[in-house]
Amino acid sequence: MNNQDYSNHTRWYPLNHFVIAPISLGLIIFQGWRAFQSQETTDLITFVITILILLLALAARLQALKAQDRVIRLEERLRLKELIGPEDAKVAGSLPPGMLIAIRFASDEELPELARRAVAGEFKNPGDLKRAIKNWRADHHRV
Question: Pick from 79, 143, 140, 142: which is nearest to 115 by CA?
């Protein structure tokens, strides 16, 4: 696997991002145009069904990401407990979910300091925290 850092950590899932999404978008545009042109009930129903299928795919993706985020938060709470001790980990574990998810990229050596800075409110958003990481801990398993 390639080295990962802030500039290349975004995960693209080719089947979803470059095949399913463009085909779905094209199908919705086509079915919408067809329903508008013919104004027949069957074409309108087909258009609505096409939108429903796209929404189902989107909902499935969002649910998978939400479940994965929960696992990442749990993993990071356990990691914090191991690296900085139970009391400090309790405080750091109360960071907003986005911050806990972002801090997973920090190496074990950097984690205690970055957690302290995050708890102190030094980072406005998860992106700021990610940009502060010097020794990136790659995550190649994100969905």
Answer: 79
Residue 83 makes CB contacts below 8 A (sequence gap 6+) with 89, 108, 111, 112
pLDDT in tens, 54-83: 999 899 999 999 999 999 999 999 999 999
Enumerate the β-bridge partners of residue 136: 106
With b for 16 or more beta-carbon neighbours within 10 A and e for fewer, the 112-132 pattern comes to bebbeebbeeebeebeebbeb
- Residue 75: closest CA among 34, 67, 52, 87: 67
Quote the CA–CA distance of 101 and 73 in Å, as a whole number.
6
User: What global pTM score does this model have?
Assistant: 0.79
Q: CA-CA distance, 99 to 2, in Å (whole number)?
A: 24
Residue 103's nearest CA partner among 71, 133, 78 is 133
